[in-house]
Amino acid sequence: MSADGVVSVCANCGKEGNDVNNICNKCKMVRYCNAACKKKHRHKHKKECEEHARLVAERAAELHDEELFKQPPLLHENCPICFLRMPSLGAGSRYQSCCGKVICTGCLHAPVYDSQGNEVDKYKCPFCRVPVPSSEAEGIKRMKKRVETGDSRAMFNLAFYYYHGLFGLPQDYRKALELWHQACELGFVYAYNYIGVAYDWGRGVEVDTKKAIHYTEQAAMRGDETARYSLGTLEKNKGNMDKAVKHYMIAIKDGDSDAVNQMKELYSDGHATKDDYTKALQSYQEYLGEIKSEQRDQAAAAYDDYRYY
Question: Among 131, 125, 128, 140, which residue's Cα sits nearest to residue 170?
């Protein structure tokens, strides 16, 4: 008898009772009193079983897509100094290992003043006023200290340095993955995408396409526009243009300029409608309006690596 009070019945011989508990492994819908009945009934049950499994798989895929294509929450926080939306492009902001803040390049480029209104050394953090690291070694030391405090972004950055062997650190894929996994556990979204890349290329782990897609999707659903763009390109290359358009539109809303170019290409090739492309341009213009500031324009003009659009 099942938990809801229904008596279990063998699908082959009709026997009833609590000992009829040999369940079909594939569809989980029918029971048998023993393995012999299960085997004997297999040819009769096969078609029904496969149809049920197909329907379950289709529904699971539908539910997955519903979750995947939801507009994710806005990932980028406002700059803690100017309070404007942070640019999506990495060159538009910088992590400060002194205080753990992420500051837009406009505020980094602008003059820094003390509490009396006097301009101070520009080589100080505009948020906490601590001098910038005087060497790569000091910068890495600060980053490791932030990691020890549980700073997930510091973990992500340090992992990136190990992955590429930067700033005097040895190239160590496994160490990078360990730190990215720790960052994920603490909620740092971008780390998911980098783990996906590691599985895609086999860096520190065996190549595993399913895991690569899984981690990329986890990043995208949490708001990583770069991961979202990657999924759009993956679907485009597979010929799934409708899904590609959906991914690109979400990435554009989050500020991905490459997705705008892809939408232009899809529109030119007849795979996206004029309305789709118009909405993509409008969405991107809205994003640019939200991040624009005179200070950021000045920073972009002064330093190529500060460009954010």
Answer: 140
Residues 196 and 241 in one domain: no
Question: Where are the strands (E) in 56-175, listed by range?
Answer: 93-95, 102-104, 112-113, 119-120
* Segment 24-51 mean pLDDT: 88
Token pair for 81: 């100094």
Q: What is the CATH number of the domain that holds 173?
A: 1.25.40.10
Ranking 233-237, 259-263, 277-281, 290-294 by mean pLDDT, the lowest is: 290-294
Residues 6+ positions from 61 with CB-CB distance below 8 Å: none
What is the per-residue pLDDT across 239-275, written as a single tens digit (0 to 9) for each? 999 999 999 999 999 999 999 999 999 999 999 999 9
Which structural domain range is residue 39 located in? 1-68
The continuous run of DSSP H or E covering 265 comes out as helix 257-268
